[in-house]
## 1
Amino acid sequence: MDEELRAWVRSARAIAVLSGAGMSAESGVPTFRDALTGLWARFDPQQLATEAAFRRQPQLVWDWYAERRAAIDNVQANAGHLAIADFQRRHPGRLTVITQNVDGLHQRAGSAGVLALHGNIAQDRWLDAPRACCQADAIAPGRPPHCPVCGNLRRPAVVWFGEMLPEAELAAAQAAAEACDLMLVVGTSGEVYPAAGLAAVAREAGARVLIVNPQASALDRVATHCLRATAASALPLLLGDD
Ligand code: OAD
């Protein structure tokens, strides 16, 4: 590991981590855009990750998410997630995690205050605005579960294509990007906005932007440096004490 990069971490007052699917690749969670194993190489996002798709084929979409949810239940945080959480414990208040991942692995690793911009696959919520009959303790089981009175469906609490990001998380992420003096961009292709735009926000505010990704990404042009390494191999060295 380049000593200069470690020095960037040591001297940083405020670090923001912007993570994407590659962060969890070494845990066994597939990415989206890998040419062979990525989910969007095998499945059409327009058929699975939009509100229109869910309304058209609720059972198909529900089952697809249920399968991913079950797979994620069976994996573990990797050395990259753990190195970030460990840094936060050793340096309270110095590192903010902003993630596009819905897998909850940063949280499982022990990271606090994770800003999950695309939601959480372990949770669900009402598809349509809940009426008086839509009660959390009276959800009828099914694929998807639903309100037994009006039929309102439960849907995965993730952000689908064409949907807004959760306002509070996005505002907090924007603030963290503006306030940091080092942003680590880990395991994202940088193709999906507004999340990807946070790297430029940090750079324009004067922060160093260090990319950790074994491949080139759309954000390389805003990077101060690109570290061609995987999350689980690089982050323990980068964020470790010795
Ligand atoms: P992508 O699949 O687009 O990109 C994954 C990135 O991780 C690629 O640049 C890989 O080179 C890199 N990568 C692979 N293995 C890695 C490893 N072990 N260590 C570090 N990097 C590695 O995933 P995202 O950028 O997260 O949106 O995709 C953004 C959004 O598009 C996702 O949040 C999802 C998807 O549609 C929603 O669900 C709303």
Note: Residues 20-22, 25-26, 31-33, 38, 100, 118, 158-159, 186-189, 191-192, 212-215, 217, 230-231 surround 2'-O-acetyl adenosine-5-diphosphoribose (CB under 6 Å).
## 2
Amino acid sequence: MRIRHIKGAEEMVAAHPLTINEPEKYKGNWRREVFGNDAPLYLEIGTGMGTFIRESAIRHPEVDYVGIEMNSTVLLKAMRRYEKMAEEEGTEPGGNLRFMRLDARLLEDCFGESEVDRIYLNFSDPWPKDKNANKRLTSPVFLARYKKVLKPEGTIEFKTDNRGLFDYSVETAQQEGWEILAITYDLHADETMMEGNIETEYEAKFSAKGNKIGKMIIRVRQ
Ligand code: SAM
């Protein structure tokens, strides 16, 4: 994502009412202390400009959502956009959605064991060079992190138009003891898997170019 850095973005994100600062404080207590309810907790890692998570939170008020993004400029734009839309619609920003600036490598510092019900990975950076393989959000190191914070029956939903990354992710998931519950190599032509689909910015951009979108839903083998 080529985006010009906004000076002071880090501080502005930290001061924003939708931001969770010091997320380690809530480890194990997100539902009660952040959302004040007992709803399922869904994370999106690499939330980008936030279209997906915002729309998800609107369509599913019965779920709590946390958007995780490590780039403060991108996150600030996502939060501003969210606020503007809430203002136009006359809805209260916040509710069942929060954001946090975090490198997902630190996920286990912020969420307790079995605290999370679902993780979304949408159009994650491909990191094509072997030397960067551990940075891929579907690499064995990341899958091990997700396994710790997800409930045993918790799921990961992964979408990308990058066939190399998709094949790598399918193979890695199988090797690391995950079960593939559903898979398609052409999401937009798959009526069943398209049901309830929420488009991300990258998805809209790349599917408009004619790229096929792969999607898999996985869960730790039971
Ligand atoms: N999900 C959005 C979409 O589908 O439109 C954005 C996709 S963009 C290619 C990937 C995003 O993931 C970038 O904004 C990047 O900063 C973020 N990201 C990559 N690695 C991350 C990590 N380890 N922790 C948090 N965010 C990460």
Note: The radius of gyration is 17 Å.
